[in-house]
């Protein structure tokens, strides 16, 4: 930035820089793994200029190998064929369980906080090894073989972790489907992932409400002929439909089998899991992660981003149905051998103190959650933050940009200025944190995810020219220039889509899909998606997928969905729908359309507003101009830009009237 000119990355000049609080360092059990910003910079430099040396050392330091590797990495972003630690062999469940159970069998691995306070229990590493082994036996006896996919449709109970580790123990691949997805969504994911077995519960319990998980599985499986078996954990004891020969009770099966089974020895690049996420088309992508690279990313970020130490008690509020739950409820804390909280409930049940009560009672040292929950709790009021939470050292934020005032509330009211706030930027595809402060080390600015993690070489690209913009104080879209161990290896069964989405947009780069700025000090500010992905309460949704759901309704001729900013949920889904002739336009229809999305995708994707309009704004070639809808919703109908390409320019005024009448 030339002196005297307006900075490009504006807010960087208006915010304070926060250093790791002295009180955090005072209560630290020893000292942070990294001693200073200079040490971070030195390690970072090595990770970029000598990646083989850096990652070879880290891989051997943090993971236990059955067979050592010779080659640290092969392949390139250009060809989308990165592979890591290729000759190495290891097992994920051995790394998460056995090595700790051998040394410390009585150490708590899982702290289960049930939906009802005080109904939880703990599982030690010794118990976890026995549970995982019995479940692994069970799955094997049900016919699951190395390389098979097992779908998991479970609420947040300890058995969710046990299931994932049992699957990977026998070399199978887990494909978790968030237990808020509808039967249709579950069906699509089971079919696409070629799952042979589904693991679920009779019911789930969340926020005092029951969820009919088994019923949803039954409905989904009506159209999944390749699923041979369903393993059902009894959570509530409800009366549920049963298909003899296909369905098995968890408690009846696991008691048949021994408490130890040897882990299957896997190659470093064998698939570890599939996780479906939304892209810019209507069809979800089965993001595939492989064993060693993913595990190393989880362990590395657990150690250096969160600064986890042996006696820490880690609480990530994410659900195991999303990547945050995979990496930071399950893999990172267990790889490092600490205690991890599995929380079944919601932050609002039985009241808005629930998180704070758990943190206080369980002496939690690390808390990690999405800003959407923080906005809700901030709004509920400081009176709910009654407990001292004196063990807290690190407060993490994830999933969406955190507004400066929410950041400050987190730091001051929740953390009492005794914990370091880390705003971690990453994606399902990156596997683990990629732009993030290191707890106890990196100075932070509220609203900025700060600096790149080891091995991540960010580039800001001009989306118009496609050229990288060098230097500081620049804005553009965010890409990465080097492969890193925990990056996704493919989109399952759709490698071409993987190449086109991430590597062919800007040749030689991994494209994140996010806009970003790099300020005058090299700090990154994430602006949000530049594709047709919206972020509602930290849930990643595709506008195309919601449109496809709406069009399934018999009355709908055309639909266009846009994300609008929302005080509570970050973004909210707004739908514009043109109705076929002969249908009455009324509130019942609007309700029915919302129901259609709930049924087709899940309750969390339901549009906040449905506008029934005579027609959508389209170009002469029939392309829907969503930009115009966004402008109308923002009240900027006087700034529509070029509307001469619209096939019917009068449509703007008509839509405008519908929106205004509805408000
Ligand atoms: C998208 C990825 C990976 C965690 C859960 C979401 C947005 C993620 C941040 C952050 C601003 C963020 C991005 C990204 N995002 N973290 N700290 N600040 N935006 O994973 O469902 O794969 O979504 O979430 O837009 O692309 P996901």
TrEMBL record:
<feature type="domain" description="Acetyl-coenzyme A synthetase N-terminal">
    <location>
        <begin position="40"/>
        <end position="96"/>
    </location>
</feature>
<dbReference type="GO" id="GO:0019427">
    <property type="term" value="P:acetyl-CoA biosynthetic process from acetate"/>
</dbReference>
<dbReference type="InterPro" id="IPR042099">
    <property type="entry name" value="ANL_N_sf"/>
</dbReference>
<keyword id="KW-0436">Ligase</keyword>
<dbReference type="GO" id="GO:0003987">
    <property type="term" value="F:acetate-CoA ligase activity"/>
</dbReference>
<dbReference type="GO" id="GO:0005829">
    <property type="term" value="C:cytosol"/>
</dbReference>
<dbReference type="Pfam" id="PF00501">
    <property type="entry name" value="AMP-binding"/>
</dbReference>
<dbReference type="GO" id="GO:0016208">
    <property type="term" value="F:AMP binding"/>
</dbReference>
<dbReference type="GO" id="GO:0005524">
    <property type="term" value="F:ATP binding"/>
</dbReference>
<keyword id="KW-0547">Nucleotide-binding</keyword>
<dbReference type="InterPro" id="IPR032387">
    <property type="entry name" value="ACAS_N"/>
</dbReference>
<dbReference type="InterPro" id="IPR025110">
    <property type="entry name" value="AMP-bd_C"/>
</dbReference>
<dbReference type="Pfam" id="PF16177">
    <property type="entry name" value="ACAS_N"/>
</dbReference>
<protein>
    <recommendedName>
        <fullName>Acetyl-coenzyme A synthetase</fullName>
        <ecNumber>6.2.1.1</ecNumber>
    </recommendedName>
</protein>
<feature type="domain" description="AMP-binding enzyme C-terminal">
    <location>
        <begin position="545"/>
        <end position="623"/>
    </location>
</feature>
<dbReference type="Pfam" id="PF13193">
    <property type="entry name" value="AMP-binding_C"/>
</dbReference>
<dbReference type="InterPro" id="IPR011904">
    <property type="entry name" value="Ac_CoA_lig"/>
</dbReference>
<keyword id="KW-0067">ATP-binding</keyword>
<feature type="domain" description="AMP-dependent synthetase/ligase">
    <location>
        <begin position="98"/>
        <end position="484"/>
    </location>
</feature>
<dbReference type="InterPro" id="IPR045851">
    <property type="entry name" value="AMP-bd_C_sf"/>
</dbReference>
<dbReference type="InterPro" id="IPR020845">
    <property type="entry name" value="AMP-binding_CS"/>
</dbReference>
<comment type="similarity">
    <text>Belongs to the ATP-dependent AMP-binding enzyme family.</text>
</comment>
<dbReference type="InterPro" id="IPR000873">
    <property type="entry name" value="AMP-dep_synth/lig_dom"/>
</dbReference>
């Amino acid at each position: 930035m030339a002196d005297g000119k307006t900075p490009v990355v504006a807010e960087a000049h208006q915010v304070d820089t926060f250093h790791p609080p002295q009180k955090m360092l005072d209560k630290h059990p020893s000292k942070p793994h990294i001693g200073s910003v200079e040490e971070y910079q030195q390690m970072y430099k090595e990770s970029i200029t000598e990646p083989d040396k850096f990652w070879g050392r880290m891989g051997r330091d943090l993971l236990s190998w059955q067979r050592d590797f010779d080659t640290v990495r092969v392949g390139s972003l250009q060809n989308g064929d990165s592979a890591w630690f290729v000759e190495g062999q290891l097992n994920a469940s051995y790394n998460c369980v056995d090595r700790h159970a051998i040394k410390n069998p009585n150490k708590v691995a899982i702290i289960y906080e049930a939906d009802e306070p005080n109904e939880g229990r703990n599982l030690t590493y010794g118990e976890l090894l026995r549970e995982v082994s019995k479940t692994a036996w069970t799955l094997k006896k049900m016919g699951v073989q190395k390389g098979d996919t097992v779908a998991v449709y479970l609420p947040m109970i300890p058995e969710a972790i046990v299931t994932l580790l049992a699957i990977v123990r026998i070399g199978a691949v887990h494909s978790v489907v968030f237990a808020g997805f509808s039967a249709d969504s579950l069906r699509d994911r089971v079919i696409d992932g070629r799952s042979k077995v589904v693991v679920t519960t009779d019911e789930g319990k969340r926020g005092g409400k029951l969820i009919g998980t088994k019923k949803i599985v039954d409905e989904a499986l009506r159209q999944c002929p390749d699923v041979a078996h369903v393993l059902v954990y009894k959570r509530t004891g409800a009366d549920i439909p049963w298909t003899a020969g296909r369905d098995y009770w968890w408690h009846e099966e696991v008691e048949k089998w021994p408490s130890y089974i040897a882990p299957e020895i896997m190659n470093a690049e064998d698939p570890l899991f599939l996780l479906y996420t939304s892209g810019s088309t209507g069809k979800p992508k089965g993001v595939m992660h492989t064993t060693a690279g993913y595990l190393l990313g989880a362990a590395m970020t657990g150690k250096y981003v969160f600064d986890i130490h042996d006696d820490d008690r880690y609480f990530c509020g994410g659900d195991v149905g999303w990547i945050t739950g995979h990496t930071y409820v399950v893999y990172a804390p267990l790889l490092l051998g600490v205690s991890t909280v599995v929380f079944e409930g919601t932050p609002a049940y039985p009241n808005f103190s629930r998180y704070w009560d758990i943190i206080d009672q369980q002496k939690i040292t690390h808390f990690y959650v999405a800003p959407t929950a923080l906005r809700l709790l901030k709004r509920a009021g400081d009176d709910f933050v009654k407990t001292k939470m004196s063990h807290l050292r690190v407060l993490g934020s994830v999933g969406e940009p955190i507004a400066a005032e929410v950041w400050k509330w987190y730091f001051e009211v929740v953390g009492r200025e005794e914990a370091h706030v880390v705003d971690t930027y990453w994606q399902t595809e990156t596997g683990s944190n990629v732009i993030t402060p290191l707890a106890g080390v990196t100075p932070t600015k509220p609203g900025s995810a700060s600096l790149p993690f080891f091995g991540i070489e960010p580039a800001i690209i001009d989306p118009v020219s496609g050229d990288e913009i060098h230097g500081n104080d620049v804005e553009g879209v965010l890409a990465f220039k080097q492969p890193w161990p925990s990056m996704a290896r493919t989109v399952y069964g759709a490698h071409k889509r993987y190449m086109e989405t991430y590597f062919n947009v800007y040749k030689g780069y991994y494209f994140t899909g996010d806009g970003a700025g790099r300020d005058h000090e090299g700090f990154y500010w994430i602006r949000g998606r530049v594709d047709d992905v919206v972020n509602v309460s930290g849930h990643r949704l595709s506008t195309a997928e919601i449109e496809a759901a709406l069009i399934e309704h018999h009355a709908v001729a055309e639909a266009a969905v846009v994300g609008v900013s929302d005080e509570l949920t970050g973004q909210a889904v707004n739908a514009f729908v043109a109705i076929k002739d002969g249908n009455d336009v009324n509130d019942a229809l609007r309700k029915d359309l919302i129901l259609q999305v709930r049924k087709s995708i899940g309750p969390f994707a339901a549009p906040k507003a449905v506008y029934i309009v005579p027609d959508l704004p389209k170009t002469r070639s029939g392309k829907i101009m969503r930009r115009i809808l966004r402008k109308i919703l923002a009240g900027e109908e006087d700034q529509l830009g070029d509307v001469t390409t619209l096939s019917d320019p009068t449509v703007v005024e008509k839509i405008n009237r519908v929106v205004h009448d509805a408000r």
